[in-house]
Fold these 2 entries.
Entry 1:
Amino acid sequence: MSRFACYPPILAYHRVGEFKGDHVPTVSTRTFERHLTFLARGRYRVVGLEEVIASLARGQRPARRSVAITFDDGYAETHEVAWPLLKRFGFPATVFVAPAEVGWPGFATWQQVAAMARDGLVIGCHTMHHSYLPLVNANRLPEELVESKRVIEERIGRSVTLLSYPVGGFTPQIQSAVQQAGYAAACTTNRASPHPGIDPYALRRIKVTERDGNPMLFWAKVSGYYDLFRRLREPA
Ligand SMILES: [Zn+2]
């Protein structure tokens, strides 16, 4: 396979705003704003993840300079900081929430999640309990994949068709369960799918961190040179 993925780079943000000294990958508000400015000035086409999946299903190549934006975990800052900035730039995005975490300190509330959905952000599922799925007992998978989806749909009044694997963890059995649960696609981290070609149930994403305040690094990530860049930094 060529070093260029056959779908646009999918950026994975976690928290945007103030670093709280925890393990959560955090991008400062200033850096996030710079990223959006970079995409706008560079005439990147920021597309929704559903659009990426629809064109994959049709076997179409993505338009040049396309890029998709996603957020994991549904932090309070996704609503308070990232959403207003995305709105200002008119960029679509997908936010993956875990129902068991919604409303806890540091996380967006259901009201906030529903408000983002009404405003055009796409809400996806991040399992019920933010579980590392390869370690979840098979009899608990329906709760993590089916019940979680139903709860989010009920809260936001929209269908949920996208999933993000917590910590990128999946197996072929989990992928089948995700498909059976009615999801159209699922995102992982930068782990490659074991299957050759494009696997809609293991869409690779590019984690964005504060280090990407460096414009060259961010450029590498949104331009499809990221894999090459990784090879140069981490020679085999
Ligand atoms: Zn997560």
Entry 2:
Amino acid sequence: MRVFDTKTKKVAYAKQTQAVKGKNKSNCPLCAVGDNANKARIYDFDEMDADHVAAWSKGGDSSAKNCQMLCITHNRAKGNR
Ligand SMILES: [Zn+2]
């Protein structure tokens, strides 16, 4: 299965959002490390999409372990590789 199901996405979203809570960091890991206007932004669930940590094309699966949520902008940028 190439796409993550909603439940997997919600779990990843909750985990990431919880991890940065009170740290003034974005819940998008790519925004958080960049020097940009969104680096402390907490995105809503529907402003993000799931990404494979290990690329699907390189054998990454669609388990919760391989799921990270990125903001739509970063997700699109990555997806175009
Ligand atoms: Zn981002």
